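Structure first, sequence second, as always.
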């Protein structure tokens, strides 16, 4: 992604942000698109099953708890904070024709 050596550090941070977004998206999609089953589970828990032919583990089951859901929300909130911080620092995203980040003060 880097065209110039001095951009490499910024690019690593952007790539890290993109990778984190992808991981969060995957976990969020499991919860949103998975099949929830509370049968045989402890109160306030559920087993969420997902099917995805593009991954090694085609059928995946995950025990969901309120803490697990809260942790995901906290992780997403932290990602948003990092996105805004990096956007201000590097000047993205911008509206078409603008020269500064939409997050600029």
């Amino acid at each position: 992604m880097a065209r110039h050596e001095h951009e490499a550090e910024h690019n690593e941070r952007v790539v890290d942000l993109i990778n984190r977004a992808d991981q969060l998206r995957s976990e969020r999609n499991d919860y949103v698109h998975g099949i929830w089953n509370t049968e045989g589970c402890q109160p306030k828990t559920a087993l969420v099953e997902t099917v995805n032919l593009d991954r090694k583990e085609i059928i995946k089951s995950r025990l969901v708890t309120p803490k697990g859901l809260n942790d995901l929300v906290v992780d997403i909130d932290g990602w948003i904070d990092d996105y805004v911080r990096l956007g201000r620092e590097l000047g993205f995203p911008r509206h078409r024709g603008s020269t500064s980040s939409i997050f600029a003060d």
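Margin note: The chain has one domain: 14-90.
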